[in-house]
Structures are given as C-alpha cells and as structure tokens.
Structures
1.
Amino acid sequence: MSNRPRSHLTRLFHVLSLVIVIHQIVNSTFMERPLPGDDPEWPYLIHVWTGTAGLQILLCFWIWVLVRDARETRFTEFFPWFSPHRLRAIFLEIDGTLRALLKARIPSFELPAVAASVHGAGLMLATGLAATGAAWYFVFDGTPYGRMVLMSHKLAGNLMWVYLVGHVTMGALHQLLGDPVISRMFWLKLRRARNRVEVAAE
C-alpha cells in the first residue's frame, strides 16, 4: 500500500465506488434480465439505474484524478505498463516483499508503485463494467453487437469479483499487521484520534 495523503474527495469517491460495485455484483447474482416483450422486474431496474449512476461517479472520479493535488497518486502512475522505470519500481517492490517473507519478516507497507497500479487496474475495471452495461442497455440491446457487449459486461463482472475479494483481503491483512490503510480510507483513524483528544481533555 501507499501512505500518501488522500483528500476527503478521493476517499468519498473511493467509498461510493466500493458501495456501488458491491451492490451491483451482489444484485447481479439474483436479478433476471427480462425476455423481449416482458416488463423488467425491480431488481433489474435497480441494477440498470444504479449502474448508470455509478458510471457517472466513476467518470467524475477520473476527472478528479486528473486535477487533484500532486501529492496524491498521479494519473500516469495508474498506467505503469508502458514505462520501464515504473515497471522496474513495481518489480523492486515485489522483490523486496518476497525477500522479507522468505526471511519470515513483515515486509514494508510502503509500496507506492504496486498500490498505484492495483488501484488503476481496479478503477479501469469498474469503469469498463459500468460502461459496457450502460452501452448494452442504452445502445446495443437488440443489435448485432448486443451479445458481444453483454458478454464483455459479464466477463468484467467476473473479474470484478476476483479483484474485489483480493483487494479487500489485502487491505484487511495490512490493517491486521499494523498498517491502518482501512482506517485511513474510511476516516476511522481521524475519528479515533479525536476521541483520544476528547478523553484526554476530560
């Protein structure tokens, strides 16, 4: 993970994206797509309109990534795959982590290159998932390309399950090992600090 400062707006976009993604992939497990001529049921309609709102939030998130403070993760750091320098930084961080684990030591929590690439992949995947869903519903449903777009949407949904489980698991592991990444992202660390100040004042 990375200990870079995160603005309140970055945290808010992160929380909103997480909530929407969890809702959508859970909702997709029991909703049914209506057959041609049938009226859609409410779980399907909720999925459609929540996904549409999610796409707008994700697009705003991308705009924020482009214009936010330079101390936060920069847009280019989300895409290290065409930069030998950034790829080398990722490999060095992974190598350092593996070496520490082989020596039965807790590895460094400061992995900015890895964290940026993982978050970039997740943001791209979530955007692709929302975009293919919106494209199928509003543009390609009933067209020759509709099946291909829908299959892409389902594939992105399956990949999102894998990403979400892995991402949450790693975040929880960091938290348990002493790196309060979840506390920082959800304002819990700040809230606990305020509580300690209030108790001390009493």
2.
Amino acid sequence: MRVGIGAVVGVLGGPATYACELIGALARLGGHDYVVFTDQPDAFAGVDAATVHVPLRTRYHQVMWDHWSLPSLLEERGVQLYHGTKNVLPWRLPVPGVVTVHDLAVYACPETFALPQRWHLRALIPRSVARSARVLADSEHARQDILSRFGVAPERVATVPLGVTDAYRCPAAEPLVARLRRTHGLGERVIACVGTVQPRKHIERVIEAFVRTGAEEQGWTLAIAGRVRPHHAPKWLGALPPGTRFLGALDDDDLRALYATAAIAMSASEYEGFGLTILEAMAGGCAVIAVGTTSIPEVVGDAGVLVAESDSALLAGALAALIRDPARRAGLADAGRRRAAAFTWEETARRTRAVYEEALTCA
C-alpha cells in the first residue's frame, strides 16, 4: 500500500527524532511505498521514500499545516493510509488514519504549555483518537493514559516503544569530544542533563541537586543541553552556579560527544511519554539518574538509579552516591548499554508496519 506520513521535523525534540528515525527504518524495512509530507525535505535525503514539501512558516502555524495544507495533498498523492506522527490527524482526512500520541502531558501538566498549544492539543487529540483506525503509544504508561482518558477500545491502541539511533551506541570520535570540552569549558568529570528547556523537565532541580552535593568542589561540571522553549525564561539561565554550563541546542555529533564525555546523566522530569533522551544517554554509556514515574521505569528498568519523585534532595542523594562510587558508575554504564541495545528503530518500524496493515484491513 501507499502510506503517507506527516513529519514536522524543523523543531528539535522527541517527535522530530521519532519521525525521522521511524521513516528511515520503515524505508529500509520495505514492503510498502511511503510518501513523507514534511516541512524539511532535506532531513530525508538518502531515504528511499518520496517527499512532499509542506512549508511551515513558524511552529505556531502547525494548525494550518495539519488541517489546511495536508488533506488535498494526500488525495493528490494517492495515499491509502495516513500516519500523523505528532499527536493529531487532519480535521478532514480522506483516508484511514493512524496517529501517534506521544503523551498526555497537556492534561497531566497543563500549566507547562502555552495557551494556544494547550487549546490546539486538547481540541484535536480526542478527536484524532476517536476517528483513527489505530493509535500508537510510545509506552505502556502512555497507552493506559489514552485508554483511561478517552475510553478507547483496548485493541485500537498499540504500544510501540521507540528506538535509539545506532550512532549513539558507538564511541564519539576523540576530536569531537575534545572540541566540545574546549568550546564549553568542560572538565574531565561531567554530569549531563539533556532535554528541551521547559517547565515540565524541572532542570532547576537538577541544578539544585548538583549544588547540594558540592560536586563542583570535587571537580565535576554540570552540562545542560537543549533548546529553550519559546517564551520560557527560567531564572537559572541568567544565574548559573559555579561549575554549571548551558550548552544550548546541540546537533547529533555534539550530543554524542556530550554523552561520551559525561560519566553521569540526570533527569528530573516527572512526566514522560517515553524518555528518549534517557535512553540515548544509556546507549552512550552514561550512568543514569532519573525519576521512577510514568514511562521512565519501562525505559530504565534496573539499569539506572530511579528516585521516587522529582525532588532535589532525592536527586542529590542519588548523585552523591554515584560520585563516591566509580565502580557502581561503571556497572550502571554497562547495564545501560545492554538495556538500550534492546530498543531499536528497526523493531519500532516492524511493529508500526504491522499496525498499518491491521489498520487498513479493518478500516
């Protein structure tokens, strides 16, 4: 069949990584024709799939992108099934649809969303779930959220975990690591905190934990990396404590270099649909500290340190224990690599393709 896939990838983050990696893996897997409707066709150069450029002027024009631009293009390209990879389906959809709902944070943590985004997602996610042939969830936690909130028949919602890019499993080239250290003034002992800078990630609690442990006096640097969500200006950005660096948004090579540099990766996020940055840190050889709520235990298992809640004192206790115990850090790094090896984009693509086939059969 011919499958159309919507892929907004011009805004860095988990949904963009998901769309790019899934489409590449589907094309390698073969079996169907894929047409990618995207704001950034260059992101799919070298992928064996047709691309259709659907311009997106700003991230605030997402509503027009989904509901005004796409429907006629789907008809023109003769797709038989459409997959919305970022939580919603077009209002007017001429073919059966599959939608990936990454999480329901807009309900669980509404205060962390800008009002227009909150309105858009709350208006469109329920409708997209109701009219889709199948719904994909990144984790069993996300699936249960969808089932309990929207009353969907269980057989219509499939859990398909994400993968980790193979490049993260390979050591970063030493010149890249050296350049990253030099550019950002990183020492030999590094703690990484990676993710979009937005309220739900609670990066301030990671900073507080770092300060509480006195890690800077022991030669450690806290490196925070990620794009800053528009209109979000946390106070810590203007007053970083000693030993803390803000690296901003990193490209893939620099992010791999950061994980290669860091011995420990920390997250204070208490709500995740999956936890892709945590998985990438594990694949990159970091000992991980995270919060054991929502989907995060499904990703980390027993290959990291999970604290009961997003609390700076709990995070500081976990960090202090790892700083004191290099053998345990090394053991967790090895365990993390082994666990991350089970999460591949090829498996994500195989399970997603099976959902496509099922969706078209019962549409």
3.
Amino acid sequence: MVCTGAKSEKQAEEAIRTTVHRLKRGGVKIINEATVKIENIVASVNLGGQVHLEESARLLPRSIYEPEQFPGIILRITKPKVVFLIFASGKLVCTGAKNEADIHKAVQHIHNELENKDLMIY
C-alpha cells in the first residue's frame, strides 16, 4: 500500500492504520499488523529572497543547471541524502528525505550555504 498526500509522518501512519482497519471490517483477511515505512518526503519551501542560479550552479557541488531544459538547479546533497530543486524566485522543493527532521536539517543547510556564498538577493 502506498500513502500519498499526508502532511506529516503521523498523518500518514494514521491514514494507513485507518485503511487497514476498514479493510478488515470489510472482510479482507489481514494477518499481520501494518508496518509503516516512510520512503520519500517532499517539502516545498520559500527562502524569502531570490537566488542567483548561474552563480549557484558554479559554486554548489553536485548541482546541475540547464535552463533550456529546466528553469531551476537540481542539487543533490549527501547528508542528509536529499535532492533540491532550487528556483530563482527563492522557492525550492526538497525530496527524498526519510523523516521530517532530515527535511529541516537539509533546508537549513542549503539556506546557510546560499547565504554564506552570497547567492541570495533580499
């Protein structure tokens, strides 16, 4: 079973448990309890300023920027292991995290990196 659209880890777990309960009530034989494993959390963020994309692509390791193909930077970081889509508007998408704490850690890391390298416009 795959659960999408939940706004938190807790909400995803509750949705799965509710679904399993309804399936059981409906006559579906389910022997074991549901084991919830979060595989991918996606978060959208507004950094509150604009980002110099061309300069960022040059200075951020493991970044890809091909504006003819996609209007943002694709940036992979390893700790925590996530992928960012960074746009000139200062909005970004973070995907691939296994828990909410990793999202917060990764976003804080990239925001600090952009500010420290003077890549943000406020």
